[in-house]
Every structure is written in C-alpha cells, then in structure tokens.
Amino acid sequence: LAKENNIAVIKARKNIESAKARLIKAGSWSNPEIAASSNIAVQGENTYELSANQEIDALGKIGIRKSIAEGNIAIANEEMNLVLSEAAFAIKDTYYDLLYAQKSTDVSMENLRLFRKLLDAVRLRYNSGQVFISEVTRTEVELLRAENEYYFADKELKTIKARINLLMNRRFDIEFVPGDTLDYKEQRLDYTT
Predict the structure, then answer these.
(1) Per residue in 150-169, pLDDT tens?
(2) pLDDT in tens, 171-181
(3) Which of 48, 86, 176, 179 is a Cys-bridge partner for 161, taking CB atoms 3.0 to 4.6 Å apart?
(4) Which of 102, 103, 90 is nearest to 164 (CA)?
(5) Whole-angstrom Cα distance, residue 185 to residue 123?
(6) Is 10 exposed, middle or buried (0-12, 13-18, 19+ CB in 10 A)?
(7) Rounded distance, CA 183 to CA 187, Å?
(8) What are the backbone angles phi and psi of residue 146, rounded to the nearest 5°?
C-alpha cells in the first residue's frame, strides 16, 4: 500500500515516465517548419511564398542524445529504488513507534484503572478511620497524574496514526489499526551475483 500511495514514490514513478518520454524525443528528428506568406497588391503583381525548413543534426548527435536519455532513465530508476527504500524505512519506523505508543497507552490505561481502585480502597479505609485525609489527597494526586499520562499517551498514539496515514497518502481521520495493512514478507538475498 505504501509503494502505491506514497507521494514520493508517485513522484519518482512520474520521473521515470518522463525520462522514457525524453528518450523517445531524443531519438527523433526535430519537427519540420513550413511557412507561407502572400503579398497581394492592389494593382500589379501578387507574390506568394512557401518555404520549408528541416533541421538536420550532425552525424552521431541523435545517438549521443539517446545515450544521455538512457542514462537519465537509469538514474531515474535508481532514484526510484532509493525513494522506495526511504519510504519503507519511514513507514516501518513509524509503525514501530505506533506499536510502542499502543503499548504505552495500554499500560497507562491499566495504571489508571489500578489507581482508581486504590483511591476507592483508600477512601474506604479513611471512612473507617484507618488512614488520614492526607493519604486520600496523595492518592487523588497520583490518580490525576495517571490520568494525565494516559491522555498524553493517547494523544501520541493518535498523532502517530495520523503520521502513518500521511506516509501512505490516506486521509488522516481514517483509523489505522496496527497490523491491518502491513504484511511481513520474507525476502531472501541472493549473493551469487
């Protein structure tokens, strides 16, 4: 999906297409030019003029232009490989950030749930007279800190999901779920060549 929709990959693909079009143009003669003019006199003679021009390249010039255009195609292909590698790296890096942020959000949510239970237990002990009000206040402060950590983790998770959608050229408001579009494909390296 990233190879199809990433903006940099699309641009590199267009560069390859334009380099191929320049190869076709480099192997052809320039267009002929035709000009016509007339001079109509009220009395006397009328003149009509027709001219045609064709630029002829020196020997070997078309071959040189074609070889330069073929070199440009090779450069565009290598740039495409580089862009594909960079796009894959950026998406994988962001995907790992997403997995980390997802785990961080889950841990923060579990921490928040535990602090809520702790606050209920401390309030129960306070009502029975076993602890002072300062313990209740301290637990409430810790609960607020846990809520704050959860909100920051959730915000970071949403930001990373939007960044992945941006890298894949999808709308940022589409929910990205880890594992929904990135498939692992084993690649074997061939060292024989």
Answers:
(1) 999 999 999 998 888 888 87
(2) 767 777 666 44
(3) 176
(4) 90
(5) 54
(6) middle
(7) 12
(8) -65, -40
